[in-house]
Predict the 3D structure of the following.
Amino acid sequence: MKVGYDQDPNRAIQKLKNKLIQEGLFVELKKRRYYAKPSLKKRLKREEAERQRVKDFRKAVRQAEQNDDWWR
């Protein structure tokens, strides 16, 4: 990314940072900061999957309630 003569360099830095966040670079760096045993990785993945299932279930319930309320 090139910064032009009349462009703000701080804005260019912020754009770069936002791109890196979208790509997940900072999350990956945070994960790799310390060694995690394979058993810990497996447990964390299982727990994250459970949280996601709960979120998806709650979202489905809310959508079903909204669809039922359309005629009231």
Notes: The mean pLDDT is 91. DSSP finds three helices and no strands in the chain.
